[in-house]
Specification:
Layout lengths: L10 E5 L3 H10 L4 E5 L22 E2 L1 H10 L3 H7 L3 E4 L4 E4 L15 E4 L2 H13 L4 E4 L2 E8 L4 E8 L2 E6 L2 E4 L7 H7 L7 E4 L4 E8 L11 E4 L9 E8 L3 E8 L9 H9 L5 H6 L9 E3 L4 E4 L11 E3 L5 E2 L7 H16 L9 H24 L12 H17 L3 H11 L11 H9 L13 H7 L10
Parallel strand pairs: 1-2, 1-11, 2-7, 5-14, 11-19
Antiparallel strand pairs: 3-6, 4-6, 8-9, 9-10, 12-18, 13-16, 13-17, 14-15, 15-16, 18-20
Helix pairs in contact: 1-4, 1-8, 2-8, 8-9, 10-11, 11-12
């Protein structure tokens, strides 16, 4: 009796070994053999790479991202923590001032956790985990040139490695190549209409310097320090101290047009002291720098509305920063990347990877977490002068005022804080801000007054100055 032939396993190509690309590869492995195409040569272990210039700045992962990380790759967060990362309570392990200049109380009874570490460490752990899967093949130093196929179906991608070009055929091509994605051009080359785009650019510049954790702060769970910029007082200036692995502090300062930080090391601490509250400058004034100041200006919120396209080819999906990139100050990029990959995996569990119309459904599913993060970012940045050609509407202004009031309520009421964090962490939609947990404290009034300054404990302040510091190099 003749045996039946073995069914061919579907194939997928992911363009980009960014976090978005690696999460996408992880989501696809149950359904296809995956080839990841990466333009750069990836570092071994934690290290900088050319394709992620923003990696040197402060990064954190909101609790919605923490949950998505472990849903995609169980144990991933524990691996990061085992290698020096931290899970910190929001706001219990944070000293944070909101954009409306209200200091949050450090409520300890919270289920929300941020994952805090350097981006280099996170990327290293993620690479090790995903690329160890035998169903994933990595092609480094390989550039994606164009899509193969036509306006109805993408059949693969043309790539170049060195001087050699070839076509990688695939049942599904995923573009996760980041802000520099050429997907809009690739689609028009196939004969499809131009994709609608929008940009909201607050003109933010970031400047980051690495420090040795001062005093004995490396021996305690020193809190994150976050002074957020106020859109109502342009130029908006802010900063963050992020204690990370190896007893280091990542200190990132930011400023919008007319108030940008520079790469001048002698001006770094003075800029921090000149923020709306000088706490960051005071804490680093005698700390030892571990390198020069690094700056970044590519911080605009930019979105491409692929999900609204009138025509969409089968076999092609765009994910991550290639769909939308956000002002990094909000810390949502990594969370959205993981949530998009989860949306892809969830849909693939109900439909075959080669099913007609699946790619359009995948693109629309990925748009949901993108929309949540976009609304939060643009709801702040659109109020900076020159950020957008379309001024905020009356409805957007009313919503912004409501959010300010929600923040002020959450800053001193734990129930309201929980509702606020559900939204800020991208765990629940913005409608959560209109539930009784928020409305009752807002209407009945807070039980505690607003804090008049950063809620650092005396022990934390003493830890900063508990031993003689090396010269700061200022």
């Amino acid at each position: 009796m003749r045996s039946s032939p073995t069914a061919r396993r579907p194939t997928a190509v992911v363009v980009g070994a960014s976090a978005s690309g690696l999460f996408a590869a992880a989501a696809l492995t149950d359904f296809a053999d995956v080839t990841v195409v990466e333009r750069d040569r990836l570092p071994r272990g934690p290290g900088a790479r050319r394709g992620v210039p923003q990696a040197r700045h402060a990064h954190l992962v909101w609790s919605g991202g923490v949950r998505a990380f472990d849903a995609l790759l169980p144990g991933l967060v524990d691996e990061v923590v085992a290698r020096g990362g931290r899970l910190v309570r929001i706001m219990g392990d944070m000293v944070s001032r909101a954009p409306n200049e209200v200091w949050f109380r450090r409520f300890l009874a919270t289920r929300h956790r941020n994952l805090v570490c350097s981006r280099d460490l996170l990327d290293s752990v993620l690479r090790d985990r995903v690329l160890a899967d035998e169903r994933v093949t990595l092609r480094q130093e390989t550039t994606a040139l164009r899509l193969e196929g036509d306006a109805t179906r993408v059949t693969g991608v043309r790539v170049r490695t060195g001087d050699e070009e070839r076509t990688l055929t695939a049942d599904l091509v995923v573009d996760a190549s980041g802000r520099g994605s050429r997907a809009p051009q690739w689609l028009t080359e196939l004969g499809l209409p131009t994709v609608a785009e929008r940009e909201v650019n607050a003109g933010v510049t970031y400047a980051t310097r690495l420090y040795r954790a001062p005093g004995t702060t490396g021996d305690i769970a020193f809190p994150l320090i976050n002074v957020q910029a106020n859109p109502a007082k342009a130029p908006g200036r802010g900063g963050i101290i992020l204690p990370v692995e190896s007893d280091r502090w990542i200190v990132t300062l930011s400023g919008t047009r007319g108030g940008e930080p520079t790469a001048d090391p002698d001006a770094f601490t003075d800029f921090a002291l000149g923020l709306g509250d000088p706490v960051i400058g005071e804490l680093i004034e005698n700390a030892q720098p571990l390198g020069d100041v690094v700056t970044t200006r590519a911080t605009a919120n930019r979105r491409r509305y692929f999900e609204q396209a009138g025509r969409w080819p089968d076999g092609f999906v765009v994910l991550g920063d290639a769909v939308a990139g956000y002002n990094p100050v909000y810390g949502h990029g990594l969370t959205v990347a993981a949530q998009c990959a989860l949306a892809v995996r969830g849909l693939l569990r109900t439909a075959g990877l080669t099913a007609p119309g699946l790619a359009r459904r995948l693109q629309r599913a990925a748009a949901r977490p993108v929309t949540a993060a976009w609304t939060l970012a643009v709801g702040q940045d659109a109020f900076y002068p020159g950020a957008t050609d379309i001024p905020p509407s009356t409805v957007e202004r009313l919503l912004a005022r409501y959010v300010d009031r929600a923040v002020a309520t959450g800053a001193r009421n734990p129930r309201a804080m929980a509702a606020l964090l559900d939204v800020m962490s991208l765990e629940k939609p913005a409608a959560r801000l209109f539930t009784p947990d928020m409305l009752i404290p807002m209407l009945l009034g807070p039980r505690q007054p607003h804090l008049q300054g950063p809620p650092l404990t005396e022990a934390e302040r003493k830890a900063v100055m508990s031993e003689a510091q090396a010269p700061s190099g200022r």
